[in-house]
Specification:
Chain B: Pfam families: Robl_LC7 (PF03259). Chain B: This is Putative regulator of Ras-like GTPase activity (Roadblock/LC7/MglB family). The complex is a heterodimer of chains A (about 190) and B (about 130). With about 190 residues, chain A is of the alpha/beta class. Chain A has one domain (about 10-180): Rossmann fold. Chain A has helices at about 20-30, 80-85, 105-115, 140-150, 165-180; strands spanning about 10-15, 35-40, 50, 55-60, 65-70, 90-100, 125-130, 155. A six-stranded mixed sheet of chain A has the order 4-5-1-6-7-8, sandwiched between helices. In chain A, strands 2-3 form a two-stranded antiparallel ribbon. The longest helix of chain A has 16 residues, at about 165-180. Chain B is built from three helices and five strands, in the order αββαβββα. Chain B has a five-stranded antiparallel sheet, with helices on both faces. In chain B, a hairpin with a 2-residue loop joins β3 (about 80-85) and β4. The radius of gyration of chain B is 14 Å and the shape is globular. The chains are: A alpha/beta (about 190), B alpha+beta (about 130). Bound molecules: guanosine-5'-triphosphate and magnesium ion (MG).
Chain lengths: ~190, ~130
């Protein structure tokens, strides 16, 4: 079977603060995404000016006509309740990480643990940014981390500011979903 | 430039304002929080409960802002969630988007009175923290 049947389904972008969830959805969404950015008052956690506290929402149409609803979560653990709301009913999850951020490998565990229960087995793709920064762990290190836990998921090096990179993540996830269509990916 | 969260003294004064407001019939607890979900001051809620209310309240305020903007209605002012057991109101504090107040009220609260009192409380807090 090739690809998901034409229909409508939901993909969730998650990962820690500053990983690039909002940037990724803006890079590929058809039309302006819905954003819930507010001023970031916790510059210790991350230096950026704004942060997502509700969700990001965008939409794309795939070549086969299926519509993908894209949701981006907040990154901070205090918004865990939002992770569960957004994770519910997701066909698949894309975990984004910034390899240059401290504790990036541990963050992988945090988000995989939080979202694995929401998705059918295997519907997970990991996108790692800034692997070129000196001393940042490589994509292999993230893959090994998953492997050690018996989780099989593609790990791709991405720059979330580039539409092509983000689309590659989505296509990879859609491929996985396609191979599981028999198990009832939302049509 | 970032507006940092209010200093300790202001927070203590804000807590006093909330304490007075807590006298309003039916009010169970109140939490003042930053738009990115940190508690600034609270009344009658323990640390864990006020941290959670602050996070959820900030999401609702942000979703309210997004919805009002989408509908072309301008800025978010307040939203009230009504349920069997009572109501929760989230109201913006001051003219900036930096803070909101969440108030939990029981069945015994009269919604009109509650909203009026909450508005007064928000005005007092804005005077204190958002000059
Ligand atoms: N220099 C550089 N910047 C990047 C790269 N990837 C992402 N960024 C920047 O990192 C920032 C990511 O910010 P957001 O998209 O707001 O991150 P987020 O994951 O939505 O964060 P929260 O909503 O706070 O959880 C943006 O300013 C991007 O431009 C990269 O490879 N190099
Ligand atoms: Mg974001």
């Amino acid at each position: 079977m090739s690809g998901v049947e034409a229909g409508e389904f939901k993909i969730v972008f998650t990962g820690p603060m500053g990983a690039g969830k909002t940037t990724a959805i803006a890079a590929i969404s058809e039309g302006e995404p819905v954003r819930t950015e507010v001023e970031n008052t916790d510059r210790v956690a991350h230096a950026k000016e704004s942060t997502t506290v509700g969700f990001d929402f965008g939409r794309i149409t795939l070549a086969d006509g299926s519509v993908v609803r894209l949701y981006g979560t907040p990154g901070q653990v205090r918004y865990r309740f939002m992770w569960d709301i957004l994770g519910r009913g997701a066909a698949g999850v894309i975990v984004l990480l910034d390899a240059s951020a401290p504790g990036a490998l541990v963050q992988l565990d945090v988000f995989v643990d939080a979202f694995i229960p929401h998705v059918a087995h295997g519907a997970l793709v990991v996108g790692v940014g800034r692997t070129d920064v000196p001393n940042a762990p490589s994509t292999d290190a993230f893959a090994a981390r998953l492997d050690a836990r018996g989780i099989v998921a593609p790990v791709l090096s991405v720059d979330v500011r580039r539409q092509g990179d983000v689309m590659m993540l989505v296509r990879t996830l859609v491929c996985i979903l396609g191979s599981h269509t028999a198990h009832g990916v939302p049509a | 430039m970032s507006k940092v969260r209010p200093a300790k003294l202001s927070r203590e004064l804000a807590r006093k304002v909330l304490e007075g407001y807590g006298e309003v019939a039916g009010v169970q607890c109140a939490v003042l929080f930053s738009s990115d979900g940190f508690e600034i001051a609270s009344h009658a809620a323990d640390a864990a409960a006020s941290a959670r209310l602050a996070a959820i309240g900030s999401s609702l305020a942000a979703l309210g802002t997004a919805l009002a903007g989408e509908a072309g209605l301008g800025d978010f002012e307040r939203t009230t969630i009504e349920s069997n057991g009572g109501a929760v109101t989230i109201m913006r504090v001051g003219s900036s988007r930096s803070m909101s107040l969440a108030v939990v009220a029981g069945k015994d609260a009269v919604l009109g009175q509650l909203l009026w009192a909450t508005q007064r409380c928000c005005q007092a807090l804005a005077k204190l923290l958002d000059p």
